[in-house]
Amino acid sequence: MLRVNLPIIATLIVLEAISSRLSFGQELFVGSQIPNGGGAPAGLITVGRFNSDAHLDIAISIASAPGKVSLLFGTGSGSFTSGGTVLVGGANPYAVIVSDFNGDGKQDLATANDGTSDASILLGNGTGGFSAGQTYAVGGYPRYLVAGDFDENGTIDLAVTNQGPNTISVLIGNGNGTFQPQVVYSAGDIPRGIVAADFNSDSHLDLLAANRGDYTLSRYTGAGDGTFQVQNGISSYQARPSALVSADFDSDGKPDLCLGSEGLRSLTLLVGNGNGVLNFSSILDGPASGLPVDVAHGDFNGDGKVDLVAPAYFTPSVFVFLGVGNGEFAPYLSFATVADPNAVASGDFNEDGFDDVVVATDGSDQLTILINQAPFPDTCGDADGDGYGVPGSPACPAGALTDCDGAAAGIHPGASDLCDGIDNNCDSLEGYDRDHDAYNTCNGDCDDWNTSIHPLARERCDGIDHDCNGVVDVPAEQAGSIQFDGASTFSWNASSENGLKYNVYRRVRTSGSFSAPACFLANLATATASDSTSPALGAAFAYLVSGRNGCGEGTLGNDWLGAPRPNPLPCP
């Protein structure tokens, strides 16, 4: 299990992100390895242009004392040369990000230093050199940071998550590379990843932080003057959420959110509606046993839609999800790495128009470069006219995902599943299971956006039909008038409701009419009962069955007109 503050030794793997497998079912890579230039252990990765040659470069935080950042300068062909290391001024840096903190048009670096409870600013000179790090005090065990103009004065500010005191620190920039003392805001338990975006459409930057310890999000609504209003305890719908990335996954112009995890093998998507609220969208499963402890986005197949990549920690692989553009993603594609990848970043390192991926891998200090040949077809083979080709191509009007049925216009990656026995949307599933609760829209899930609602869920007595039986909280009617002679075993149709018990009531007819129902058997776990008593000569027994759960007992069958019969004498 990953621990909060242990250093992670790293290999860096540069993956030319979409191999021909994405279009043709093949994998074509040419691999090579070089030292990462900083030794180990390493933390996270960022991508920028640090020297004057316009090619993408890489910076890696090296968790050492004294801490440092290793630089790798890109050649534009997918290869890199060592740019040396720069001391950050603190110890054990974990996160590293790129921005322009002094407004000179040259890219600078910032690190969160876990070992000394500070953040470092390294000013770039535009030719690959950086100043020694200037540190600023933040909270204990800082982990992630994000940059943005929070006070809207044209200069860049910082926000840092602090695991020790469960806070975030906001440092307002002075515009010359220096910062004002931190302003502290509360967070949930063990805050990790943090992103900045305008989530409520008021033109001010907001912040969202993932809290690993209590599985929540903290929202910081920006006022535009560098201050924030805090809301903690927002459900993340994710176990041990760690890294975050924000992008527009459904093409509606509003920022959405993707959460990595240190507890599950899946990514969680939350869709923004532009008013500050993020709604659960779906869960994206990765390889078995692989934890997506980091996540990044890019356009890996050149179709202009947002794709996702994450490391599968505990496996030797990363996995890629190709976006449809409507908030849905195709099933994952897996690419081999050295064992236990722990960090990712993306960029077009060989300048062929397709984003590539850098992966840090726990256990080695080597940089592995996997260059893909990327032979995408430059024409769209779309025989059925649905906008998707066979194979997929960026030239297709609907994007580069491959159509799973090139002869049927209603079957393609962007279609809706119709529960007709056909995989209409090419996701290898019948129906949707966005909430990953093992029930989908074709087998009885009445709310596929909520993991606590499905046919086998327990009612929670909150006014919501959690078990999808059409009745809120208390159970529906079970059975009425099912047996008219005694001394036998009788049964009824079992309910699928999770945790349901049955009460059996007996009525006796002696002359003309039945008596009021009386409790006969209580809290039965199965849909069967026995009565060893025989009715008197000329009499008869009738049995009524109700269901009971944690919210109470349901109605006691129906009367002869079909109306629910009240239950005045419930079983104990």
Structural commentary:
The protein is mainly beta and 572 residues long. Helices cover 1% and strands 38% of the residues. It has 1 helix and 36 strands. The strands form 9 sheets. It has a 5-stranded mixed β-sheet with strand order 2-29-1-28-27, with no helix packed on it. A hairpin with an 8-residue loop joins β23 and β24 (307-312). The two termini are 46 Å apart.
What are the defining features of this structure?
5-stranded mixed β-sheet, 5-stranded antiparallel β-sheet, 1 helix, 36 strands, disordered N terminus
Total beta strand runs: 36
Computed Rg: 30 Å
Distance between the termini: 46 Å
Apparent shape = elongated
Number of DSSP helical runs: 1
Query: What fraction of residues sit in β-strands?
Result: 35-45%
Largest sheet properties = 5 strands, mixed
Which structural class should the secondary elements be placed in? mainly beta
Q: In order across it, which strands form the biggest sheet?
A: 2-29-1-28-27
* Helix coverage percent: under 10%
Mean pLDDT: 84
Q: Low-confidence runs (pLDDT<50, min 5 residues)?
A: 1-30
Provide a concise account of the structure shown:
With 572 residues, this protein is mainly beta. The chain has one helix spanning 21-24; strands at residues 11-15, 29-35, 42-48, 57-62, 68-74, 80-87, 93-99, 108-113, 118-122, 134-137, 142-148, 157-162, 167-171, 183-186, 191-197, 206-211, 216-222, 228-235, 241-247, 256-261, 266-272, 278-285, 296-298, 307-312, 317-321, 333-336, 341-347, 356-361, 366-372, 488-491, 501-511, 513-514, 518-524, 528-531, 540-549, 552-553.
